[in-house]
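Backbone-to-sequence.
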């Protein structure tokens, strides 16, 4: 199942296709995140600004400890900023009348963790169905949808395997199916290939790229892998709590650039 048409059986599209072309989907404005207080406080994000337009696939490349996970958690409304705000469809998430925080987390954003966080004793199908069951959808249709998504990520022969029995690459594919089963508009991926060998990393990245296009996602991918990042529409870096375009990083060394937009 490679195309949107072929995967039409995967029902339940929410909002991803309702947004007009080039519309700003997700925005971070002056995001600041300080952990702790007093002498032990640590400001991880100082003034992070980001604009993701519909259909973009954007990479964030920054070293460990730079604040990538912190930023992605704030963008997914899994954590709250010290100041600043995240906007979805031009409205701040916290006060958005159309989309509550819970709805934003469950329906708008798909989150992919570096360590897949599957439930090892549950089958691949049960893991993928979980977000649907958690939002109150009935059991049998959820399991059917989950199996279709497993086929979409190439795991039609592993649907009844326990997650703990699968290889690292297969587990990350299950996690991708679980992140997309709710048909989110936005995919946030936190070093999704970080734990994989080079061959599996490429295979998982190429799968993400195909699904990004087929399901008209807007995707933000944190990665250490510059070769993968180079396949994205643009690359951001995160330095001293500020997001910059990669060109802007070069600017610090004498070529033109600017803050991320
Ligand atoms: N809950 C927390 N409390 C205190 N410090 C934290 C917390 N989460 C992350 N940090 C610190 O914030 C910094 C950025 O972490 P993180 O966002 O995980 O970076 P990255 O994902 O780029 O490796 C690190 O120095 C980390 O130790
Ligand atoms: Mg991280």
């Amino acid at each position: 199942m490679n195309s949107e048409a072929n995967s039409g059986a995967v029902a339940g599209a929410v909002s991803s296709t309702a947004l007009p072309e080039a519309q700003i989907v997700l925005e971070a404005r002056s995001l600041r995140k300080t952990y702790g207080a007093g002498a032990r406080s640590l400001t991880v994000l100082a003034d992070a600004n980001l604009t993701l337009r519909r259909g973009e696939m954007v990479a964030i490349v920054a070293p460990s400890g730079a604040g990538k996970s912190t930023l992605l958690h704030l963008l997914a409304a899994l954590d709250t900023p010290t100041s600043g705000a995240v906007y979805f469809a031009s409205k701040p998430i916290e006060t958005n009348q159309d989309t509550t925080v819970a709805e934003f987390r469950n329906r708008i954003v798909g989150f992919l963790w570096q360590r897949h966080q599957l439930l090892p004793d549950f089958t691949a199908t049960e893991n993928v169905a979980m977000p649907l069951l958690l939002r109150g959808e009935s059991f049998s249709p959820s399991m059917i949808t989950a199996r279709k998504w497993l086929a979409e990520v190439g795991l039609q022969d592993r649907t009844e395997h326990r997650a703990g029995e699968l290889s690292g690459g297969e587990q990350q594919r299950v996690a991708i199916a679980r992140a997309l089963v709710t048909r989110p508009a936005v995919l946030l991926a936190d070093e999704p290939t970080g734990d994989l060998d080079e061959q599996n990393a490429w295979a998982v990245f190429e799968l993400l790229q195909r699904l990004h296009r087929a399901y008209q996602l807007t995707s933000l991918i944190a990665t250490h892998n510059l070769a993968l990042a180079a396949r994205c529409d643009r690359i951001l870096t995160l330095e001293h709590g500020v997001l910059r375009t990669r060109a802007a990083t070069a600017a610090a060394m004498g070529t033109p650039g600017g803050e991320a937009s």
